[in-house]
Amino acid sequence: MHAFPHAYAEVVKCPGNPCPTGFECIGRLYGEAPQGGQAYHGDDQVVFPEGFKLDTSYQQREMTCFGGGNNNCGDLKPSDIPKGLEVRPDGSYYWAVLKPIRFGQTLGPIVGGLPQPGRFTFGMHLYCGPAGAPGPGCNVHVDVCAKRLQ
């Protein structure tokens, strides 16, 4: 795991209930571009709730990683998704989710002179390509679901 030692913005929660039974929504990765604008290429990440313990007995087996007229998600495979997570990508117009995937922990507090575990983080690269005017803009989002260790 890698450490991401910086502050994070408010996590955007998944609308509705997109996660499979037994999983919790951690948050939504999101990017968009307006019609006639430049394509969106960006990295986004979510931060897990404090004290979240991940059940790594689960491995995602399939996923859609592109849509619209786009037909390429590079070399991204379901096995690249960390154990215990289920990602649910979707979008409008041309969109894709790509590597790199980042999974790590923030730096936790120092207690008794020893660093404590921080919060898990997960992120990936998002892409969407809008149409020229008068066509549509685009968006890409990924609902990040996690299986909590009981």
Description:
The chain is mainly beta. It has one domain (22-146). The chain is 0% helix and 49% strand. The protein is built from no helices and 8 strands. The protein has strands at 2-3, 24-33, 40-47, 66-67, 85-92, 94-111, 114-129, 138-146. The strands form 2 sheets. Strands 1, 3, 4, 6 and 7 form a 5-stranded mixed beta sheet that branches. The two termini are 22 Å apart.
Beta-strand proportion: over 45%
Instruction: Report the radius of gyration as a whole number of Å.
Output: 16 Å
Count of β-strands? 8
CA(first)-CA(last) distance:
22 Å
- Large-scale geometry: elongated
Q: What is the percent of helical residues?
A: under 10%
Number of helices: 0
Q: Could you report the average pLDDT, rounded to the nearest whole number?
A: 84
Contiguous low-pLDDT stretches (5 residues minimum) are: 1-10
Number of domains: 1
Structural class: mainly beta
The helix-strand sequence is EEEEEEEE
For the largest beta-sheet, the strand count, sense and barrel status come to: 5 strands, mixed
List keywords for this structure.
150 residues; mainly beta; five-stranded mixed β-sheet; three-stranded antiparallel β-sheet; 8 strands; 0% helix; elongated; disordered N terminus
Short description:
The protein has no helices and eight strands. With 150 residues, it is an all-beta fold. The protein has one domain.
Produce the secondary structure layout:
Elements: E1 2-3, E2 24-33, E3 40-47, E4 66-67, E5 85-92, E6 94-111, E7 114-129, E8 138-146
